[in-house]
Every structure is written in C-alpha cells, then in structure tokens.
Amino acid sequence: MNENISKTLSDRREFISLLENELAKNEISQKEKEKEIESLTETINHVKLLGTEPQWDAMIPLGKLIYIPGKIVHTGEYLLEKKSYPYSFETLSTSQQTVDCLEQKKNVCEEQLEKFSEIDKQLKERLEHLDCKDNVYNLPDQIVCDKGVAVRVGEFYEILEFEDE
After folding, report:
1. Which parts form a coiled-coil structure per UniProt (predicted)?
2. Residues forming a β-bridge with 92
3. Which of 79, 83, 112, 120 fits 88 for a cystine, CB–CB 3.0-4.6 Å?
C-alpha cells in the first residue's frame, strides 16, 4: 500500500513539474508574440511614413569610399509574401493594401496573445491549487492510513482509496 501512496504522490509531483514546464513554454510564446506585434506595428508605421513622404535625401554609394548626394523615390509598391498551405506566393500591392494586410496580421497576433494569457492564467491557477502554498487553515498536506491517502488540493482534500485485489 505504501508503494501506491508514494507512486500517487510522485505522479502528482511529476504533474506539477509538467505544469511548470508548460507555464515556461507559454511565457516564451507570449514574449515571441509580443515581439512580433511590436515588429508589425513598427513596419506599419514605416509603410505609412513612406506613403506620406515618398522622396528622401540620401548619400548614394558608388564604391567603398565614394558617395554622392541623391534622392531616393519610393514608387508606392510593396512586395508581400502571402502564405497559403502548401504554397506561398508574392504579390505587388499598394501602400494601403500593405497596411491593411499588416493590420490583419497584427490583429491575429493580438488574438493569439490573448489566448496565451488565458492559458497562462489557467496554468497558474492549477499550480496554485496543486502546490498547496496557501496554507490558510494550516492543515497537513496529506493524511495517510491503511485504506488510502488524502492529499490536500487548495482548501480541500483529494481522497485516494486503494482496493485490495
């Protein structure tokens, strides 16, 4: 019987470690999405700026050490990569079409970020209940007897009974 109890508790510790790993992976995914949203926002701002000011003064290189003053004029066309399984293709689009496409990608990323934050909240809630860190009533973490074990989960006890076969 003690083997069953120790197996149950070790399975519980293993589950807690799996939850902690999932929480860490989720936080990494959240950070990546935040960076992607930031990058898309910056790109949208640059595309809008190029739409309002298509002509820029620049120093144009003719060699390693030779530069001449010149102007760079943006034509207002953008090469967008469109991905659709199993193929991807590139199209020329206008400034407004590019901004709309980037805004759509940004909205999708923000929705995914909201999902990640909800998953994060759920994982933390599970860990909080399984870790028993909130010893409000100062009760023991487990109660062991010859019929089974009661393991504390938050404010309640989970009772595991063993049947003799």
Report:
1. 16-50, 92-119
2. 79
3. 83
